[in-house]
């Protein structure tokens, strides 16, 4: 199955959190924080959203930072993806 985002929505794949700390301590899955950096998989066309013109500034392949609890999680072909509005993206990682 393939997802095609509508309007100002973006489909993200979260990048897994580090398994070890900088000091070398191995973290259990319960101790890891929810990842906030994601890879952009698909971008909607933009257009008029809520009466305002939206131009999409992210593109497929970008690494982005999102809010900790933003978006809607969906499972497609066994893979967990997140759908967010472009305005929920806080920054592009360069």
Tally of alpha and pi helices: 0
Largest sheet: 6 strands, antiparallel
SSE series: EEEEEEEE
Question: How would you describe the oligomerization state of the chains in this entry?
Answer: single chain
The beta-strand count equals 8
Tell me the span between the first and last alpha carbons: 30 Å
Class computed from helices, strands and strand pairing: mainly beta
Strand percentage lies at 35-45%
Radius of gyration: 15 Å
Strand order of the largest sheet: 6-7-1-2-5-8
Bin the helical content. under 10%
Taking pLDDT < 50 over at least 5 consecutive residues as the criterion, the unreliable ranges are none
Tell me, what's the shape?
globular
Mean pLDDT comes to 86
Task: Describe, in plain words, how this protein is organized in 3D.
It is a single chain. By secondary structure, the chain is mostly beta strands. It is 0% helix and 43% strand. It is built from no helices and eight strands. Strand 3 and strand 4 form a beta hairpin.
Structure keywords:
two-stranded antiparallel ribbon, 94 residues, 8 strands, mainly beta
Would you summarize the structure shown here?
Helix content is 0%, strand content 43%.
């Amino acid at each position: 199955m393939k997802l095609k985002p509508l309007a100002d929505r973006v489909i993200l794949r979260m990048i897994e959190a580090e398994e070890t700390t900088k000091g070398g301590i191995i973290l259990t899955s319960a101790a890891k924080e929810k990842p906030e950096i994601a890879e952009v998989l698909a971008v909607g066309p933009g257009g008029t959203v809520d009466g305002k013109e939206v131009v999409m500034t992210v593109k497929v392949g970008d690494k982005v930072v999102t809010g900790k609890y933003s978006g809607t999680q969906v499972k497609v072909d066994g893979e967990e993806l997140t759908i967010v509005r472009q305005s929920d993206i806080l920054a592009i990682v360069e």
